[in-house]
Amino acid sequence: MKKTMEDAWLELFEELLRKGIAIELDWKVRKDDFMNAIKKLSKGFELEIDGEILDSEEDVPRWGKNHQFNMEGLCFISYGCG
């Protein structure tokens, strides 16, 4: 069976998860869960992330577009299922 580009992305994602350098979140996770995941992911790096600038009524895609995360070197990838 020939692998598709989608298969390659899923394999890469799984490997990043195994290595602990990626996290998987539902797009509508609560803000405090999002911040805890980001803190865990950035452990060992000198990143200061201010969760107060994020609106609790928004979601992961909107939070991921926040310039603070881009400045800190974090990358958000959205992968739709279904």
SSE arrangement:
Layout: H1 5-19, H2 31-41, H3 60-64, H4 67-71
How would you summarize what this structure contains?
The protein is mainly α and 82 residues long. The chain has 4 helices and no strands. It is globular, with a radius of gyration of 14 Å.
Descriptive overview:
The protein is an all-alpha fold. The chain has 4 helices and no strands. The protein has helices spanning 5-19, 31-41, 60-64, 67-71. It is globular. It starts with a helix and ends in an 11-residue tail after the last helix.
Query: What is the rounded distance between the termini?
Result: 21 Å
Largest sheet: none
Low-confidence stretches: none
Instruction: Name the structural class.
Output: mainly alpha
Task: Give the averaged pLDDT, no decimals.
Answer: 82
Q: Helicity, in percent?
A: 40-55%
**C-alpha Rg, in Å?**
14 Å
Number of helical runs? 4
The count of strands amounts to 0
